[in-house]
Amino acid sequence: MNLIFVLGGLLIAALMLASIVHRYQVHMAQKRMKIQRLLRGVDLVEDLLDRLSGCPFPAETRQLLQKDMLARYQAIRGVDRRYEGIDKLIGEIGQALASAEVASQRQNIFDKPHLQKVVDAFGELMGFLQEGGLLHRIPAEVVREHVEKLAMQRAECVSRFHFTKAEQSFEEGKVHDALGHCNAIKEFLTEKGPNSDEVRALYDEAEAFRKRISEHEADN
Q: Coil, helix or strand for 34?
């Protein structure tokens, strides 16, 4: 009888231990999943910022994204204080925010594929903000302000690229290419440019140059 009690006790202890181990494993798996979700957000933001290099970028939006990355790193530390390198990552983002570093305002887009990559990244970033992609929600009007600035910056980026190319093509006697760049500006602004005086000015600038090219061609 005593042996039965002993065996029963051992069985109960084994079951309890197995339950504890299982709960621990579930807990650790949940921690890993939470950290992975947070890191995916960081990777997304870093990828967008990298793809937007070469085009002037609103400083306020850059800081908003850096704050989101900081919040994600802090959340990771809250989940696992021993997560490798987390304190260093938090420190680096904190320094970037404290310095209020502003990216170069000089546009440096090499070709149409590069421009398309930048345009796509602007669109994805605007969608990210509109769909509530930030870790901590911000007021809808603040989201709208950032999206409008990004849309305007995208329009300027496209216009400056094509206008520069149009001038170069015209100087080289490539009239067809020059007209194509002018039309590309007008088409993009018509389809994706925000409704603003700045965009209308960019459109008028492209149209004026297109007319100048056409008139020059007609005179020759």
A: helix
Do residues 100 and 123 touch, judged by C-beta distance below 8 A? Answer: no
CATH code that applies to domain 109-220: 1.25.40
Q: Tell me, what amino acid is at 156?
A: E
Report the candidate in 93, 8, 108, 3 with the shortest Cα–Cα distance to residue 46.
93
Q: What's the rounded Cα separation, in Å, for the pair 137 and 49?
A: 20
Place of tokens 């231990």: 17
In tens, the pLDDT along 46-100 reads 999 888 887 888 889 999 999 999 999 999 999 888 888 889 989 888 887 777 5
Alpha-carbon span 154 to 120, nearest angstrom:
10
Residue 134 is classified by DSSP as S
Please name the helix (run of DSSP H) or strand (run of DSSP E) that holds residue 168, with its range, or none: helix 140-171
The model's pTM is 0.81
